[in-house]
Write a structure and sequence with these properties.
By secondary structure, the chain is α/β, with parallel strands linked by helices. It is 35% helix and 22% strand.
Length: 939
């Protein structure tokens, strides 16, 4: 038996099936009293299922056995709520024959569970199985065995539904189960599906409460608490509302028509329940309020109080304690320093925020980490005639994050699109996974703030990731996320997605009454990557009927996928000839309701044109957007909801500048193309010449055992070539040339023509400095080049020259794979030299890459035309390049210890390619959290 220190890293908070939280932790000797209390609350039937016999109470020997573990051969975990046990699990290591074993002698363990009856059906046992299996794998246990009575169907289902490879038999009236603990595709799928349901449910409890208490409501109007209470009441909240202040008189009081109580516990003692507590007390009094809520079984908290991580180390410690305390009571937290939450559904109507007005109902899910940005988003949507389905402004987002909201919005029938303003990432790998899954059905639009500061905003206590912004954009594209740069662009995209269908392609018709505005729109569409047709100029005299006819024709044209209408105030011949001093002249205008009325140009209105465009666009399966100048009032008419009989139905997004209109259209077209591609996803092909076992053995031999994460070794040329060769990647051999004679011998062995190049770090890949000489046809050329090189750049010891056989001419490229602790392994591609180094023209994809990813990677860089016959050059072998990318991806995916691969240059010729330089770095990889058991992030 090996004694192990208490494993703190096994502690975790998990979200259960009903959205509540339990803490999983190792059981220790100090838990004897908790174990006895727990066992007394378990029914006799559950005890019988656990011990296969009546077992009314635990003996002192049992208590000692179940609380004293070595955290190696014997491990016990407990799920707790409020510090008390609600379930336990235990394993005991055995050998192949089922006898007690220790250390490497036993790779099996017998496992058993016990769940308090009141908590059965909440998914506690499934969560415990995930965690005890991870513990067992860490301790070298490969299989679990379990014996279950057939009548204990719930426990049989826990094992059989876990997704592990398993064997099942029935002997002597007992079901025998054997689980292989190696994670499988199915076990990971099951775990993530459970995570999705649980986290979505936890958010639903926050956004759809049946009762709300505002803790910190002032006795007089004014103050944050009283403002929140007023906003909830004025918003028409459909549930029960309570005001809480410890200074209220005993027996309750009335606060503006809302019942007031001294504590949330007092409400519970009166027979009522509180689902959501909105806390608005000073930070130093929040722990008392959280304890009160926990004792009253409140389900979730919105903490608007400030004074946490945004204030420094003391506030950071206070924030950690807030989360720990809330989770211990099974509650999730939005905030602290939160602006609040909104739900516009008619059966909820919750405005638990500092927004004074309840927004109109809409179908956009909004998440922001900034209260000021939240105000701007709500105001911007209101001006555009839109509203959210739900809104969360999470402040310091110490617990509930954008990932949780994605889990909720994916299945929310009231949300059609998601808009997010993010200032930091807590878990980029999980975000891209969830965003991709959501984007399959609903658009996800993101603004990522704090791009260039490299700093996490005050209050955001998250792991720091150094992912370049270009990499973030590439990963977003791979996940189907529509990334924009500003809040205005976020609102523009939301306006489009709320009012128009997605385009089927990128072909755009442009029509309008201003030739100049049409040309500007045409240029903007080209810049945005769309394919616009020549603009159709209707002339400034065009009336509503002309616009409607042109729009109808453009929508019916099979050669267009979308239509952009440009509009300026109409100018008729009567306006040009009218005498403004003569009241009888044609300058007089009919009433605005007249379909021919051009409206008042000075007022920026043209109601007839707006009605004509809406009528023509109504029911179209192609999107329509309008670019307008000096017609702001008409823009409001285009986007206004239809009200009353006979009102125009179609709503059209209108923008004040061509780049904003076509920018939103281009993002939508790109997203639509991504979503269509997801219907036929790529695959990771089976390639020949892959020796994963041999490569793994190389890694074990070359990487020092026990090396700390992040520390490692850069392989020499020989080991690099060997490891890459295991994956069918051949590096063109280079021979050292420490002097001219050795260089000549190497060239003779390789065969002329050859290349002579330096390998010194400061000259590596610097052909511009003269460190590379190519096409040396004979020994004379070689010796001459050697002399010039050393005379100009330094001695051989400094330059480290090598001789290499010439590769076929082609395009120099660079292929890389690297591991980011937050995002995981990333595959990168670009052209070598200035395009990638100076201009940053590099494309990225997450590993493992599919054949579709590899093809897109090659084509997504701006300099891609160089590979496809630019200016009459011969196209290169992109098929060979894509295969190389797939091989590097497989290497990085199969061997997480390979933390960096750098192939440069890779010369891609018309037929085949040559890898002329390669570097590989090995290190102990950062822990993968996405494949481990479910757990809430803790900082």
């Amino acid at each position: 038996m090996s004694e192990q220190p208490y494993p703190v890293h096994w502690e975790a908070d998990v979200v259960l099936r009903d959205g509540g939280i339990a803490r999983i932790r190792p059981i220790g000797p100090e838990d004897a009293g908790r174990l006895v209390d727990f066992y007394e609350q378990v029914s006799d039937e559950s005890k019988y299922y656990r011990f296969f016999a009546p077992y009314p109470r635990l003996s002192d020997r049992d208590v000692h056995r179940f609380t004293h573990h070595d955290y190696d051969d014997r491990v016990g975990l407990a799920a707790t709520v409020g510090g008390e046990f609600i379930a336990t699990v235990r394993y005991d290591r055995t050998d192949e024959q089922g006898r007690a074993a220790s250390g490497p002698a036993g790779t099996r363990a017998e496992v058993a569970f016990l769940v308090q009856d009141a908590h059965q059906g909440r998914g506690v046992a499934s969560a415990l199985l995930e965690h005890i299996a991870a513990v067992a794998r860490e301790r070298g246990i490969l299989h679990f065995t379990a014996e279950v009575l057939p009548a204990n169907r719930k426990m049989v289902k826990v094992f059989t539904d876990a997704g592990y490879t398993q064997q099942r038999s029935f002997t002597d009236g007992v079901v025998h189960l054997d689980l292989d603990l190696e994670p499988t595709v199915e076990s990971v799928r099951v775990m993530r599906a459970r995570e999705h349901r649980a986290e979505a449910r936890s958010v639903q409890r926050l956004l759809r409460p049946e009762s709300v208490a505002v803790v910190g409501t002032g006795r007089r109007p004014g103050g944050v608490g009283r403002t929140l209470l007023r906003n909830i009441a004025a918003g028409g909240f459909t549930g029960r509302l309570y005001a809480v202040n410890h200074a209220f008189p005993e027996g309750g009081t009335d606060v503006g028509g809302v019942p007031g109580h001294r504590s949330v516990r007092e409400i519970a003692e009166g027979g009522a329940s509180v689902d959501l507590a909105v806390i608005a007390v000073p930070a130093e009094r929040v722990p008392e309020a959280v304890a009160d809520c926990g004792a009253a079984a409140v389900r979730g908290l919105v903490v608007v109080s400030a004074g946490y991580s945004e204030t420094g180390p003391e506030g950071r410690a206070r924030q950690r304690e807030l989360v720990r305390q809330a989770r211990a009571h099974g509650m999730r937290v939005i905030g602290p320093n939160a602006f609040g939450v909104l739900n516009t559904a008619p059966d909820a109507r919750l405005n638990a925020s500092l927004s004074p007005d309840m927004p109109r109902r809409g179908r956009l899910g909004l998440f922001t980490q900034s209260g000021s940005i939240g105000i701007a988003l709500l105001s911007g949507l209101h001006r555009r005639g839109l509203g959210p389905s739900t809104f969360v402004s999470a402040g310091n987002r110490a617990d509930v994050s954008g990932n949780d909201l994605l889990q909720y919005w994916q299945d929310d029938p009231d949300t059609d699109a998601v808009l997010m303003y993010l200032e930091s990432f807590g878990n980029p790998r999980k975000f891209t996974r969830l965003a991709r899954r959501t984007a399959v059905d609903k658009p996800v639009v993101v603004v990522k703030g704090a791009l260039h500061s490299g700093a996490v905003p005050a209050g955001h206590e998250v792991p720091v990731t150094r992912i370049p912004d270009s990499t973030v954009s590439a990963l977003f594209r791979q996940a189907g996320v529509m990334r924009v740069d500003t809040v205005t662009e976020l609102l523009d995209a939301g306006l489009f997605l709320a009012l128009q269908p997605l385009p089927a392609g990128d072909r755009v018709a442009v029509l309008g009454n201003s030739e100049s505005l049409g040309l500007l729109t045409y240029d903007a569409a080209l810049t945005a990557g769309l394919r616009p047709a020549a603009p159709i100029d209707l002339t400034t005299a065009a009336g509503p009927d002309d616009f409607a006819a042109a729009l109808t024709a453009a929508l019916a044209d099979p050669g267009s996928d979308a239509v952009v209408v440009t509009a300026i105030p109409r100018v008729g011949t009567d306006l040009l000839t009218a005498d403004p001093s003569d009241p009888s002249d044609g300058s007089t205008r009919p009433a605005a309701a007249d379909p021919g009325d051009p409206g008042d140009p000075e007022a920026g209105d043209d109601p007839a044109l707006a009605a004509a465009l809406r009528a023509a666009a109504a029911g179209a399966d192609k999107p329509v957007v309008v670019v307008h100048l000096a017609l702001d009032a008409m823009a409001d008419r285009l986007g206004a909801p239809a009200e009353g009989p006979g009102a125009p139905v179609g709503r059209i997004p209108a923008y004040r500048a061509p780049d904003r209109a076509v920018g939103s259209l281009a993002e939508a077209a790109s997203y639509a193309a991504w979503r269509a591609s997801v219907a036929e996803p790529g695959r990771v092909p089976d390639l020949d010449r892959i020796d994963e076992a041999g490569a793994a053995e190389d890694v074990r031999r070359l990487l020092p055992p026990g090396a700390p994460a992040g520390e490692g070794v850069t392989l020499d040329d020989a080991d690099t070539a060997t490891l890459l060769g295991r994956y069918g990647i051949e590096v063109r051999r280079a021979r050292p040339a420490p002097d001219p004679d050795t260089a000549a011998e190497a060239a003779a062995a390789l065969g002329y023509p050859v290349a002579l190049k330096t390998t010194a770090p400061h000259l590596r890949h610097r052909a511009d400095l003269g460190g590379v000489r190519l096409d040396l046809a004979d020994e004379g050329d070689l010796r001459r080049a050697y002399g010039e090189l050393t005379a100009r750049l330094g001695g051989p010891a400094e330059l480290r020259p090598v001789v290499q056989a010439m590769a076929p001419r082609g395009v120099d490229t660079v292929v890389r794979a690297g591991v980011d602790p937050a995002a995981g392994a990333v595959l990168s591609f670009g052209l070598a030299g200035a395009p990638s180094e100076l201009l940053g023209d590099i494309a990225h994809r997450l590993v493992p890459a599919t054949d579709r990813d590899a093809a897109e990677l090659v084509r997504s860089i701006k300099s891609a035309p160089m590979l496809f016959g630019w200016r009459g050059a011969e196209p290169v072998d992109t098929a060979a390049l894509e295969e190389l990318l797939l091989r590097v991806s497989m290497l990085a995916d199969d061997l997480p210890e390979v933390v960096a691969v750098d192939l440069e240059p890779v010369v891609v010729a018309a037929h085949g390619l040559s890898v002329l330089g390669a570097r590989v770095r090995l290190a102990t990889p950062p822990a993968r959290t996405d494949l481990g058991p479910r757990a809430l992030t803790s900082y």
